[in-house]
């Protein structure tokens, strides 16, 4: 059976025309993805190819965001490097938009606030990254800094660098956060060690370490919630 090209569909069923006629909220995830990739392959329309891509990740956009350019290119006929880059870039913009909504001097009131802030930054990474938030006396964010980036299992943290940056930022409080790509929320011995080291160092400088949160896939661990600070 010959492929029916999107241009042969009813106008209201074509993704771009449907967006203009009915609004962007009327489009499915597959139709939005089809607009990004523009054309399909010899056997599939862009929408059909998009449905197959989404089906491969069980229609989970979070899982789609974890696919690399090389994985998209090798996994799907009709997805070349340019299209794969467009998909990855679009998903990254979505993450950054979510994160920018919380960037306006957010006040940290709980571990949930920390998780919500860092999840868009850390959720798709295949390696560990260690970040610090610097807070004022009202626990509002005055700055953030990525301290280190490591392999799959661990990263290296220099506590002196963190404390020095806190003084430069004129911070009165700190929040530590890193991710566990494995999905295991349990802190490692290394996590415990750096937490104790930074807590003691911060105390000497009259800084408060409010929490250390470990971000996993849609879950997290909080030292403060577990009464370990």
Strand and helix layout:
Elements: H1 15-22, H2 29-37, H3 46-56, H4 61-64, H5 69-75, H6 81-100, H7 111-122, E1 129-135, E2 141-149, H8 159-168, E3 173-179, H9 189-204, E4 208-215, E5 220-222
Parallel strand pairs: 3-4
Antiparallel strand pairs: 1-2, 1-3, 4-5
Could you explain the architecture of this structure?
It is a single chain. The protein has helices at 15-22, 29-37, 46-56, 61-64, 69-75, 81-100, 111-122, 159-168, 189-204, and strands at 129-135, 141-149, 173-179, 208-215, 220-222. It is α+β, with helices and mostly antiparallel strands. It has a 5-stranded mixed β-sheet with strand order 2-1-3-4-5, sandwiched between helices. Helix 9 links the parallel strand 3 (173-179) and strand 4. It is elongated. The N and C termini lie far apart (66 Å). The relative contact order is 0.09.
- Classify the beta-strand content into a percent band: 5-15%
By oligomeric state, this entry counts as single chain
* Average pLDDT rating: 88
The end-to-end span amounts to 66 Å
Counting DSSP E segments of at least 2 residues, the number of strands comes to 5
The major pleated sheet works out as: 5 strands, mixed
Secondary-structure-derived class = alpha+beta
Ranges where pLDDT stays below 50 over 5 or more residues in a row are none
Order of helices and strands: HHHHHHHEEHEHEE
In helices, the fraction of residues equals 40-55%
| Number of alpha- plus pi-helical segments | 9
Major sheet: arrangement of strands: 2-1-3-4-5
């Amino acid at each position: 059976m010959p492929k029916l090209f999107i241009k042969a569909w009813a106008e209201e069923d074509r993704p771009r025309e449907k967006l203009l006629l009915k609004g962007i909220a009327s489009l499915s995830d597959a139709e939005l993805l089809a607009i990004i990739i523009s054309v399909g392959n010899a056997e599939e329309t862009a929408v059909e190819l998009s449905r197959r891509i989404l089906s491969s990740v069980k229609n989970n956009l979070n899982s789609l965001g974890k696919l690399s350019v090389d994985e998209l290119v090798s996994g799907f006929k009709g997805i070349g490097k340019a299209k794969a880059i467009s998909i990855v870039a679009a998903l990254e913009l979505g993450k950054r938009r979510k994160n920018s909504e919380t960037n306006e001097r957010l006040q940290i009131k709980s571990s949930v606030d920390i998780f919500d802030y860092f999840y868009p930054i850390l959720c798709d990474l295949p390696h560990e990254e260690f970040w610090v938030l610097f807070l004022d006396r009202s626990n509002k964010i005055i700055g953030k800094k990525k301290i280190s980036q490591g392999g799959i299992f661990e990263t290296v943290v220099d506590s002196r660098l963190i404390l020095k940056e806190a003084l430069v930022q004129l911070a009165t409080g700190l929040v530590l956060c890193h991710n566990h790509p494995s999905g295991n929320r349990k802190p490692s011995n290394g996590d415990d060690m750096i937490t104790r080291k930074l807590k003691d160092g911060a105390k000497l400088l009259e800084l408060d370490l409010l929490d250390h949160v470990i971000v996993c896939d849609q879950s997290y661990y909080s030292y403060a919630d577990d009464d370990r600070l």
